[in-house]
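Have a think about this chain, tokens included, and walk me through the fold.
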Amino acid sequence: MESTLRNENGTLFIAVSGRLDTVTSMDLQNKLNENGYANVDIDFDFKDVEYISSAGLRLVLALQKQVMETENKLVIRNVNKVVHEIFSVAGFTKTLTIV
């Protein structure tokens, strides 16, 4: 998994590629911790995400909870059919903003 983070005008833009699984979600969490992500909107670009595991879902859910506590927003963009189906089966399409 590759990820890039860019903070611009109160929004943290995160582009992810590959698989978001146990190992890679921990790597992304470490990057987030290093760069800071409190009190910002989060904008994920999942254009190149092939798969998301339960560990990746946990990370996304934890970020969603954090942004809701600070009245910020989390958006996930460019989700392919496989990842969208995983979000749907997990019930995340009801709580996440996926565009």
Notes: Strands lie at 2-8, 11-20, 41-52, 74-77, 97-98. The domain at 2-98 is CATH 3.30.750.24 (Transcription Regulator spoIIAA). The mean pLDDT is 93.
